[in-house]
Amino acid sequence: MTALLLDHCVWRPTLECVRAAGYRCVTLWELGRANARNGEVLALTAHRRSVLLTRDADFTNTDAYPLGRHAGIIFLRITPRTMDAVHGMLVRALRRFSAAQLRGNLLIVEPTAYRLRRPL
């Protein structure tokens, strides 16, 4: 099962959704690292063998965070209005892709779809 590290910007309802779906997760806040910078966050995911779950669009920049060189990133394109739909897509994606399939890849989750970006 995929272990997740939730970025500081992930909303509490998302944390509750992921935990209710049975996934192991921990937040940066729970680790006492709520102020960690992006590079530190990715280092934590590698150390903990977790996939990062974030709302921070900076992590979708594959020049700054090249595919194949991190533990895996899930980016949520979410607003308060689309929260339920995105949560549904997130759970579907987590059920489809194993931790090994997410490793080094970028999963983008939107209200009506998700897509997995892999290294070329």
Structural summary, described in words:
With 120 residues, the protein is an alpha/beta fold. The chain has one domain. The protein is built from four helices and six strands; from the N terminus they run E-H-E-H-E-E-H-H-E-E. The chain has helices at residues 12-20, 38-48, 83-96, 99-102, and strands at residues 3-6, 24-27, 51-54, 73-76, 106-109, 114-117. Strands 2-1-3-4-5-6 form a six-stranded mixed sheet, with helices on both faces. Helix 1 (12-20) links the parallel strand 1 and strand 2 (24-27). The longest helix is centred in the C-terminal third of the chain and has 14 residues, at 83-96. The chain is globular. The relative contact order is 0.19.
Task: Give the termini distance in whole angstroms.
Answer: 26 Å
Helix content: 25-40%
User: Measured on Cα atoms, how large is the radius of gyration?
Assistant: 13 Å
Element order: H for helix, E for strand? EHEHEEHHEE
Question: Quick one: how many beta strands?
Answer: 6
Helix-and-strand structural type: alpha/beta
Q: List the quaternary state of the chains.
A: single chain
Compute the average pLDDT: 96
**Main sheet overview:** 6 strands, mixed
Low-confidence stretches: none
Q: What is the helix tally?
A: 4
Q: Give the CA-based shape.
A: globular
